[in-house]
Amino acid sequence: MKAKMARKGFTLVEVIVVLVILAVLAAILIPSMIGWINKSKDKAALANARSWLNASKACFAELYSEHGNSVATNTAFTKEIANLAEADECTLFRVGTKGDLTANYNQDAYTITNARYEEPGIRLWYMNGKWIKQDKAPKGFPTTNKYTIKQ
In whole angstroms, what is the distance from residue 49 CA to residue 75 CA? Predict the structure, then answer.
């Protein structure tokens, strides 16, 4: 009588089947995870851009209350905006206003109507109260009265 062989592990076929199942699961899950990562990066960039815009609006309002109808330039408050925004990822931030800050008696000069925000790999545009993600300026994006806050 032959002694019954003791089974001490998995056969090669069983191991291959498990590896194939894991490979299929990875092929399905990895692309969706990459999509989630990209979406979260976009949302983080949008939150940073909103932070920069709100900080700019606050500083422009402060400038208007302090200087009223006098001439003001953006160089004096760029650091203050950066401190208020608390978003270090920004590589470029520009705002546009309804009017020119150098004009006297112009409240519109302190009203921000558009903005451009950039960080590595992401470019956002603010126009008509909405943020848009694209590489080039959207159609109809104003090109006048631009003030660079960070570059």
Answer: 20
| Count of CB atoms situated within 10 Å of the CB of 143 | 8
pLDDT (0 to 100) of residue 1: 46
Is 106 in contact with 84 (CB distance < 8 Å)?
no
CA distance 55 to 60: 9
**In whole angstroms, what is the distance from residue 102 CA to residue 105 CA?**
10
Q: What is the pTM of this model?
A: 0.72
Encoding tokens for residue 150?
């960070």
DSSP annotation of 140: T
Q: What tens digit of pLDDT does each residue of 96-130 get? A: 887 666 555 566 667 888 999 999 999 999 998 89
